[in-house]
Amino acid sequence: MEMRVRSGGHDFEGSSYISRVPFFVLDMYNFRSIVVDSDSKTAWMGVGLTLGETYYKINEKKTTLACPAGYWPSVGVGGHIGAGGYVILSYKVRLFEVPVRVSGFNVKRTLEQGAIQLVHKWQQISPKMPVKLGLTVQLYSIVNSAESGKKTILTEFITTYRGGINQLLSIMRRYFPELGVTRKDCQEMPWIKSYPFSLGVPIDDNNNLNVKDFLTNRGSLGDPSGFKWKVDFTEDPIPPEGLEKIFSKLHEVPPMTAQLGWTILGGGIMDKIPESRIPFPHRRKLMVMRHVVFWNKNDTSVVAQTRIDWMQQLHRIIGPYVPNNPRAAYAGYRDFELGVNVVENRDQTSDVENARMWGSAYFKNNFDRLVRVKSLVDPQNFLKSEQSIPILQR
Questions:
Q1: Domain of 68, in residue numbers
Q2: What is the CATH number of the domain that holds 14?
Q3: Are residues 214 and 116 part of one domain?
Q4: Looking at residue 258, which CATH number applies to its domain?
Q5: 139 φ/ψ angles, rounded to the nearest 5 degrees
Q6: Judging by DSSP bridges, how do beta strands 2-6 and 23-27 pair with one another?
Q7: How many domains does the chain have?
Q8: 29 is a catalytic site residue
Q9: Which of 170, 7, 174, 159 is nearest to 81 (CA)?
Q10: Cβ contacts of 12 within 8 Å, gap of 6 or more
């Protein structure tokens, strides 16, 4: 019988809950303690704590202390660290001081307002901007009420900056005047609100969703649905003709059923640690591209398969614009379409070369080293799952 480990239960293939073979769950879900030492800027966290709970508890201890970790609050600390965990603040590796208030904006531009040209420019200038400013892009297909109900692509340029609005506007005028950010577009907020703000989530402490609910709610914040994710890493800007193909593909799905989120990855400590230092190898990259398509719980299996097929087609369109030897993926966004361990019977070990299909995508040249380590510390291959590190044949 195999073992599955649940931390936050956020696995994109549901492997904390389901498997093709009999299994039991080592459930870490309720290991949720956290001890914060604001003097040493360290925190000891239970493996079942979510990132949102981590942010909120640290903020309770000290409102000007922050933790560099991942984007979505329901991700478990154990899974985040285990996957390598690229973060909102990739230039930091420990708790750090932040201002009492930070600033940010969410500027929306449609295809008709030059979104393709703006995204192309964003790719070029973002790596040169101060590391205290994180500018991300989110793309959706929407119905444009200003264009008589015509479908278009909405592009959100979202940033948070560890400083005031005046400094933020000065930086934008210097690096990205084409976006046309004005003072009216900007707002100041406590650091704790910058987490949902960076995801484009509207927060209303008086009426609907407040910061505490968003960060600490372990249930669904929306209607249950199915989804499929893909991730890519780029080294060079995607040219305008490539962006046009991607935007055109996004037009094919119903409004708001797919989202593309692109985040600049490089800079700071991420670029200083060699690829071979730890298993997470995706360094000195331009950006990480996260793509998701949804379907409702009441949709038919035909609709679900159509959306999955669409995601695979989008993945092929993006292929020429990303490194392909191997094409990188992120272990935190588990994807069984990359391959799974195949075992003819439960007494045999998984085949290393078969696992290389996904292992090299997640870990690049570190995969073989991980296989050697796994073979030493777990020679019976007890810790195995669909995409666990295999062991060498004896």
A1: 2-97
A2: 3.30.465.10
A3: yes
A4: 3.40.462.20
A5: -120, 135
A6: parallel
A7: 2
A8: no
A9: 7
A10: 227, 229, 333, 334, 335
Lookup: tokens for 154: 């909405």
DSSP bridge partners of 157 = 107, 137
Q: How many angstroms separate the Cα of 232 from the Cα of each of 7, 324, 330, 369, 377?
A: 25, 10, 8, 23, 31
One digit per residue, pLDDT tens: the chain, 394 residues? Answer: 889 888 877 788 888 788 888 899 998 888 999 999 999 888 888 888 988 999 999 999 999 998 877 778 888 887 777 776 665 444 455 788 889 999 999 999 999 999 999 999 999 998 889 888 888 999 999 987 666 678 899 999 999 999 999 999 999 999 999 999 999 999 999 999 998 998 888 776 565 568 888 899 876 655 557 999 999 999 999 999 999 999 999 999 999 999 999 998 766 666 777 778 877 888 777 899 999 999 998 888 999 999 999 999 999 999 999 999 889 999 888 999 999 987 554 444 558 999 999 999 999 999 999 999 999 999 999 988 899 999 998 6
Catalytic residue, chosen from 140, 195, 330, 333, is 333
Which residues share a beta bridge with 76?
Answer: 50
Are the C-beta atoms of 249 and 313 separated by less than 8 Å? yes
Strand ranges for 85-132 from DSSP E:
96-97, 101-110
Residue written as token pair 């040249």: 365
Check if the beta carbon of residue 211 is closer than 8 Å to that of residue 192: yes
Q: What is the C-alpha separation between 26 and 89, in angstroms, rounded?
A: 31
Considering 321, 351, 370, which residue would you say is the last residue of a domain?
321
Q: Report the DSSP pairing between strands 150-161 and 133-144.
A: antiparallel
Is 10 in the same domain as 127? no
Give dist(CA 279, CA 85) in Å, integer: 11
- Specify whether 39 is located in the same domain as 86: yes
* Residues 306 and 168 placed together within one structural domain of the fold: yes
Residue 316 and residue 194 in one domain: yes
- Look at residues 264, 289, 321 and tell me which one is the last residue of a structural domain: 321
Q: What is the pTM of this model?
A: 0.89
Tokens standing for 78? 């154990």
Distant-in-sequence, close-in-space partners of 147: CB < 8 Å, separation ≥ 6 = 112
Please count the residues of the chain: 394
* Structural domain contains residue 373: no
Same domain for 124 and 7: no
